[in-house]
Design goal:
alpha/beta; 300 residues; 14 strands; Rossmann fold; seven-stranded parallel sheet; three-stranded mixed sheet
Length: 300
Amino acid sequence: MAKYVVVGAGPVGCETARLLAERGDDVRLISRSGTGLAHSRVHAVALDARDADAIARASQGAEVLFMCAMAPYHQWPAEFPPIMEGVARAAERVGARIVVAGNTYGYGEGAPSQLSHDLPLKPTTVKGRVRVAMWERALSSSVPALEVRASDYLGKGAVSLFTLAVVPHVLAGEEAAIPGNPNAVHPWSFTKDVARTLVAASSYSGEWNRAFHVPSQHATPRELAARFATLVGAPTPRLREFSEPELRSLAENDPVMREVEEMVYLLEESSVLDASETTRLLGIVASALDDMVSDTLRLS
């Protein structure tokens, strides 16, 4: 029987499964597609995470369920709650602890510039409220839970506003635009560091029902774009801020960009993701920024 179950086979879920398998644990990797992983200890299973009965049957004997599933960005309110419900109910039935891969949306606009793990959750956006509701569902379960909160992803297969809107133009030597201030310091979380934090958190011997932040690197979007350009030998990037009319126009024609509008506040002011307690308690430190960039470019 699998000792660990990972729900979601995206970059974070697959890396979490790989880390567990490489230390000698048996893992079931659950996704709708049944996406596999080239490791003898990882068994891929095609299931719908909303089906608590099916997830529970696949999780018999598991100690921890990792909730790493992702929903389409423009469908979070409809897709995420039943997924979280299915995972939570399955964990309750088999007596497994829950570790949730979350993010910082729940702190909301107006949160302090230094984000600590114990800040009150005061979501000011639709997607922030969805994320908080997911965590509250995990907390309300009859089994212990932890949430690992990350910022915008970098890494192989990572999908974020920066990787979608900026990186292709930088690599092509073209001008790129980003919502928010390109000169505001922002935290960037490496998918491999997210997975390392999830795995370390699952063995945490202290009191559960709390959050950990992913140790991340901090740079302005302009600085980050320059690192991408340097590593591939592209010209110095030209990066500017989207104007409000441009954003409105994009939102009218693209459902994903429509969802970006409410999250622009994250890039307007400088912020720091304080993960010092994660380093102290779990021993995780952030990878080098160039390693994150190289992995995003699939150079490593």
